[in-house]
Specification:
By secondary structure, the protein is of the alpha/beta class. Helix content is 39%, strand content 15%. This is AL3B1 dehydrogenase.
Amino acid sequence: NPYGGLVSHLRASWLSGKTRPMEYRVAQLEALGRFLDDKKQEILEATELDMGKPPFEAFFSEILLCKNELNVTLNNLSQWMKDEHVDKNLVMQLDSAFIRKEPYGVVLIIAPWNYPIHLFLVPLIGAIAAGNCAVIKPSEISKNTERLIAETLSCYLDNDCFAVVTGGVPETTRLLENKFDYIFFTGEKLMPALREAITEFFGPNPRESPDFGRIVSDKQFRRLRALLGSGRVALGGQTDEAERYIAPTVLADVLPSDPAMQEEIFGPILPIVVIANMDEAIDFINARPRPLALYAFSCDSKIVNQVLERTSSGGFCGNDTLMHLTLTKLPFGGIGNSGLGKYHGKFTFDTFSHHRGCLHRNMGLETLNSPRYPPYTQQKLGLLTTTFEVKRRGTCTLL
């Protein structure tokens, strides 16, 4: 296997205990901060070349939010690393019971292309904070960002513990043959309002707007263009393969069986499926794999809450999109087919930490263990029941 030696080298580094001290973790995290500071302009240029992402958007999503994540982690790491002491039963009051946060070992982070810096760096922050070694696989689709990460990240991180692997599906397949301890993989009346919003954001011709991006690759462009055959183009629909340009497009009369409803779109295409009532909308959502995020819009908070309570998704945002991503106190991640693991702030640290249950008993109190040993008697059973049994709390009704 072409990556066997690399993974073995990282594992040897992890087994040496090098990544466990807090000082080491802090040093590597601070190095990531320097990477963001030093390469800020190159990150903005790479994301603009890859998908035409405006520098304004790229700074917010790829740099500022990552810096926030980094600083939250650095500010709290010493507290997160502490043993978490837990309640004990009567017999073990003089013993020590706790949860220790241990690194998994060598982890693999596979990043998607749509937020190519954010979605590799935030998991990496948590992996480092938890004391792991890591292999980072940036998306080959965002080729300029991939090149930037591959060529520069090694200048900042310890190469004995962290490595970048590039390539497409064949390379990823071979990479996955190695043993990793954890793998982190994140109606018509509407049309005038949508048309007005698009014009307000991008002007009468979005193609000429510096704030409207392009599709990341020829393959993705062709995939998205094929989706335009779903339903009827009610707004937009213009394309230019040479520029990889697809206008902001709204599809009406879309059927649940249409191609646009069978996959994540990752492009400027909005399919509209008409439903009769709230119950039908809930049933429609629940009949499909649980999404990474679910958005509900309504002036009536009861409707938003109803969607929240009766559905399941990785994350939820009412009356907005994406903004739950900006809060480091909220976990971000999928459920079921939409992803495994959650991250942001302490959630990232916990995701990449094994919570090890520990009990350290006092050898001087061995006589207290005698009721557990043969010969068994009813008296011993009664004593054990009294000391180990957990009772339900009583309830009280005030009249």
